[in-house]
Batch of 3 targets.
Target 1
Amino acid sequence: MDKIIIKGGRKLSGNVRVEGAKNAVLPVLAAALLASEGKNVIRDVPNLSDVNTISAVLKSLNAKVEADADNNEVTIDSEDTLFSEAQFEYVRKMRASILVMGPLLARNGFARVALPGGCAIGSRPIDQHLKGFEAMGAEITFGHGFVEAKAENGLKGAKIYLDFPSVGATENIMTAAALAKGTTIIENAAKEPEIVNLANFINEMGGKVVGAGTDSIRIEGVSKLYGTTHHIIPDRIETGTFMVAAAITGGDIIIENAVPEHNAALISKMGEMGVNIVEVDEGVRVYAEYPLKSVDLKTMPHPGFPTDMQSQMMALMLTATGTGVITETVFENRFMHVEEFRRMNGNVKIEGRSVVLEGPSKLQGAEVAATDLRAAAALILAGLAAEGVTRVTELSHLDRGYVNFHQKLEALGAEIERVSSEVKEGKKFTLSN
Ligand SMILES: CC(=O)N[C@H]1[C@@H](OP(=O)(O)OP(=O)(O)OC[C@H]2O[C@@H](n3ccc(=O)[nH]c3=O)[C@H](O)[C@@H]2O)O[C@H](CO)[C@@H](O)[C@@H]1O
Ligand SMILES: C=C(OP(=O)(O)O)C(=O)O
């Protein structure tokens, strides 16, 4: 079992470059299945375990997938007839596997996908995805742990109002509608930058999608889509995580490839805390000096504050002065990391869907376990600011969404290493509590 070991107290400085966005590449690789002629070449693909998982799903569906990890490129050839079933072994590993449902339904008129079930951050139902498919004429059935959608006479365009601007439902409905007969309108659609990225990709394949990035998306179905070359947008959550890394250490770093407009809510909140974030030619510069002051924040669908930055901001707020309240409105159970922060002497308690922080906490290094992807990053961030040594385990979560996270932090001056259980600790530097 790997662990990351951090000796806190170093200010970070220098430049770091963010990768292509995990949450943009997963729907794009699934949507590549829509092309029945020509190959799709996807560029700026991050080398993540989730990308390996979605690639395995595509292969299991009879697509040919070639990864060139050195050049961050994946090529997908989905010209042959596709199989219609996505197995539990993939969906269990990664919920985003459900995103093949829209493209399969569009291509084959049938899709059978293992039900994803809940995960560490909440129950995460898919009713809004299915409501969209049903409105387009699919019949939905459940059995033996699978959900099936069948549209024997093909999908028809429809007007769909989402109860909540679900990212996944918006993506799945967009891809299903791309090859449907007629026009589909998604109202109360998700507005995340990753939705715009997916709409651009569908259009590059020859589709007709307008309105992505607003709450009303219009998709005119076309009869065929063609392989193309597409670039993935930079990862706004990796960007945000490095913004917090600079701030929590009182450091000064430049994040290359960052797109500030994608992180407006985060930049505004960090600004309220006293962190300086300025646009520079390469991306953004982030610098901070203690003491930071605590704020209140509430996670919301984009352009609100992103739930995927909630745990990292909690780490930062632990080091800030005053009382802060974080309210999670997107997922019902995304506070598993709170107990781990308490093990690090964090003064934080859960009150319903909020946590209350009384700061600053004098963070102490401890052994902690990552409970989900962003919690993994947040615990490492807390370790950068803690007194003594922090050991973070359960790193499979981290590897889903961050490329070379500890190497990037080390290059910025952090005292950090990753060891596997077979290797003795303290290879690079002397670690003691
Ligand atoms: C691969 C990917 O892009 N993952 C992101 C995506 O997840 P994902 O697409 O799963 O997130 P959604 O926006 O769909 O989910 C948000 C909320 O809506 C609920 N819901 C969703 C669909 C549905 O049919 N019914 C329903 O009730 C979910 O349980 C959750 O409480 O957006 C989330 C919200 O920004 C991010 O945290 C995830 O990192
Ligand atoms: C929750 C996340 O991802 P997923 O939806 O893939 O679980 C995330 O990226 O923080």
Target 2
Amino acid sequence: MIIVLLGYMGCGKSTIGKELAKTLSFSFVDLDNYIEKKEAMSVTNIFKSKGEIYFRKKEHEYLKELTSNSDKLILSLGGGTPCYANNMRVLDREGINSIYLSVSVKELSKRLFNEKEERPLIANIETEEELQSFIGIHLFERSSFYSQARTVIKTDGLTIKNIVENIIGSLY
Ligand SMILES: Nc1ncnc2c1ncn2[C@@H]1O[C@H](COP(=O)(O)OP(=O)(O)O)[C@@H](O)[C@H]1O
Ligand SMILES: O=C(O)C1=C[C@@H](OP(=O)(O)O)[C@@H](O)[C@H](O)C1
Ligand SMILES: [Mg+2]
């Protein structure tokens, strides 16, 4: 089985994925880190020097690679992965369990304002209010992709441990 975590930037895909993998003794891959290793460049620098379209092409390619020959894997996607190149269709097969970690706009803005530098799509937004209004629109645009996941978990107010338990509970 492959468990795929998806959702907006800052929803906890990387953090929860790591914990979930430890708890289940699965291997863990963060798609952004995988791309960075394969391309020998940070996501920020890929966006800067090669552009977003190049990033989306590589993201699609590596998603197919990772999902075609893995088992007992937790795969944390990037926030945009479900929204490009028919990637939700790549995930729509037996053996892949996709989980959308849903978080409110307010909580996402709070978390991301402190961590926007390493996220090229929001790095230049100056105030938390502007960030909140950007996320409100962007999340609305992306929601139709995210909600194609097999399972949706609302995680506001939950600890990382709670969320891991909820995910494991949803598997049976
Ligand atoms: N359940 C949670 N409660 C509070 N903070 C969280 C939770 N999950 C993640 N975070 C924090 O939110 C930030 C973004 O998490 P991250 O795992 O990088 O998100 P993503 O990979 O989805 O962009 C990190 O600082 C992380 O520690
Ligand atoms: O939402 C997006 O389009 C992106 C999210 C990022 O991943 P995180 O969701 O882990 O921040 C990373 O893939 C890139 O900066 C683009
Ligand atoms: Mg991440």
Target 3
Amino acid sequence: MNAGLKQLFNIANKETRTIIGLMSGTSLDGLDIALCEFTGHGTQTRMKLREFATMPYDAAFKLEVKAIFSKRRVDLEKVCLMNAYIGTFHANLINECLQKWNVNPSEVDIIASHGQTIYHAPASLHGIDGMPDATLQIGDGDHIAVKTGIVTLSDFRQKHIAAGGEGAPLAVYGDYLLFSKKDQNRIMLNIGGIANFTFLPGDLNTSRIFSTDVGPGNTLMDAYVQSKFPDKYFDADSEIALKGTYNTKLVSALLNHPFFDQDFPKTTGPELFNLAYLEQAQKSTDTTQLSPEDVMATLNRFSAIGICDALSKNLEGEQFEIFLSGGGMYNPLLIRNIKELTNNVTIRDTAELGVSPDAKEAVLFATLANESLVGELIDFGPGQTRVPSVHMGKISLPT
Ligand SMILES: Nc1ncnc2c1ncn2[C@@H]1O[C@H](COP(=O)(O)OP(=O)(O)OP(=O)(O)O)[C@@H](O)[C@H]1O
Ligand SMILES: CC(=O)N[C@H]1[C@@H]2OC[C@@H](O2)[C@@H](O)[C@@H]1O[C@H](C)C(=O)O
């Protein structure tokens, strides 16, 4: 028998598994690395976060990724090179972390790698007849496995699409297993580049559970800041937006897109919500002369309304609590806007549930890997074709 397969078999039979989850999101701020310990699976999953780090990307690396990121036309050679380069780069960052944490690679059973999304194209966005939902993450798992010596699962999203989903949000699986609570309706709201939430009903009825993207979180604000303030990467502590006032006409124009009327679950990305989208909305409302501060206040309000409209659409008349994660939770004006728009709903963050909000998405991929190794398929019910019952992740053996 192939020794690697035997190793995999042994890992699946272990009482406790040590799994590294990796996430590199649309904000391109860095690689999130979560070292987790798992016992059990399914609703019996117990996860302990041993270590966590975000390994920041330097400006040169960000530029390399941006050259092929969420663009309809790119240099195909560059895509090919970056697929291998990102795999190796991520492996080096993992090795660096393990050394820093004094963890021998042989202690780690599995790496669960999301890769770098470079294009996300749900059918509702590309609109090309006969073409499927599609998404592309690069940073090949074989490079990670060989360079770290650790069995790697990667490319989680393709199976989801093959089985009827849009490839995202995958958060639904991890949120259900780690955060469901009897008798409490929970909204797990992640405000990354794109904002998404998972609804976890207190009656634990799996057929009501879903995750959906709701629109931009930080992506438009980040892109605008970077275009107007070349020395800044994002609007730290809402410093810029707090100096401005939102423009209601522009907010309405930004919200005027069929994406916001689509049913849940749905997904999106910077392929839609980008500077061209903003420019068009500004032109149509004659607001091209707004100050950068007013534009930032407007974009901030726009993200908040997108999030809150989606919540109220789903939860009319129901009591719920929000648990936040993702970098947008550190944007004070965004949180203030959300509180105002939800009439001060209770907002906590996932740290109260034992998972650092910065680590949550990396932990998700570790959880998906744990399920793929030892879990049984979770059945979300017959109506839930967009939350398919599948195990995700492709296996890369180090040798
Ligand atoms: N102090 C802060 N003030 C304002 N915004 C902040 C602050 N800290 C982080 N952010 C925002 O959070 C972003 C990073 O968020 P995060 O790491 O969750 O994104 P991501 O994982 O790349 O996104 P996605 O989940 O869409 O893939 C930054 O680009 C910035 O917009
Ligand atoms: C295609 C893709 O990379 N989507 C990401 C992105 O970042 C947030 C949002 O858009 C979400 O749909 C998804 O990631 C999380 C981890 C998810 O799948 O749940």
